[in-house]
Amino acid sequence: MNTFVDIITTAPVKDAEGFVTHGDTVLASVRAFKEVRNTSAKWEHIIGNAAFSSISAMFRFRKIPDVDVDTTLFISDADGRYNIVSAEDVRGRGMYVEVLAEKTEGSVK
User: Fold this and answer.
1) pLDDT in tens, 88-97
2) Are 90 and 58 in contact (CB under 8 A)?
3) CATH tag, 3-103
4) Which of 13, 47, 63, 65 is 20 to 30 A (C-alpha) from 39?
């Protein structure tokens, strides 16, 4: 595992007193394998699908109990923030999750 990542949700969260807070909520912090987009045959196969043409990184990490990783979440690491495009169970064994993500670029006004 070569990097630490935070799995983040942006959904509003209600605290114990009933107040709703907006912003980022970290669901989990885990170690993950990160592979940045390159010109290998594996990436050519992934990018060959038009739906995944904007993918810039792939993350693989152990499945987290009680956390369902889906496309509504974000991943944050030392290099920036990534929007999850696809998340799937590796080989259907329930041990690892593979996430295809695109880097989000901030806009300054």
Assistant:
1) 888 888 899 9
2) no
3) 2.40.10.270
4) 63
